[in-house]
Design brief:
179 residues, alpha+beta, Alpha-Beta Plaits, four-stranded antiparallel sheet, disordered N terminus
């Protein structure tokens, strides 16, 4: 029984706090080292937050337009071919006007609509993950986001409690979930 309690008290866990500037994070690290926590159990890192792309920042809208035009043309051509195959290529040209059959006109229109919808959706989905700008533009957008500095500490439960107390004293935010 005493072995179990000694194992649970020496079991390491971790906590971390967020700071808005690097000097605060380094100050907390120094205080923790002064309190006896080993420096190999303390890390200061920059939080790498990469916000998700917005629809306007992707190729989806451009691909949607291209897909609608391409799909309409290809669908209409396929529909025309289907209508000609069904009628055994009879009544081609102006002769088709004298012997009007709905299949000659409806099939290309319907196939054009289906093609436009289908290909535009496929191209829009494929372009939804492609950024619409260069990496330099993306990096300049990220410079407007505030950087957060994390102080991550691994230690015993007593060391974790002390760490959380110091983080709060230095205006940091202790996060509840473990990383």
């Amino acid at each position: 029984m005493s072995q179990e309690s000694s194992v649970s008290s020496t079991q390491l866990s971790s906590t971390w706090g967020k700071f808005s500037n690097l000097s605060q994070a380094q100050k907390v690290k120094k205080k923790l080292e002064e309190e006896g926590i080993s420096s190999k159990h303390i890390t200061v890192e920059v939080e790498n937050y990469d916000p998700p792309l917005k629809l306007e920042q992707t190729q989806a809208i451009n691909n949607l337009k291209t897909g609608a035009i391409t799909g309409t043309i290809l669908g209409a051509l396929i529909g025309l071919l289907i209508s000609l195959i069904v009628t055994d290529f009879s009544h081609l040209g102006l002769d088709a006007l004298s012997n009007f059959k709905a299949i000659h006109y409806a099939t290309p229109l319907i196939a054009g609509g289906i093609g436009a919808a289908g290909i535009s959706v496929i191209l829009a989905i494929s372009g939804s993950k492609v950024p619409n700008f260069t990496q330099g533009e993306r990096d300049s957008d990220n410079q407007t986001l505030p950087k957060l500095y994390l102080v991550v500490v691994e230690g015993t439960s007593e060391e974790i409690e002390l760490t959380q107390k110091i983080i709060v004293q230095e205006s940091g935010v202790v996060e509840a979930e473990d990383r």
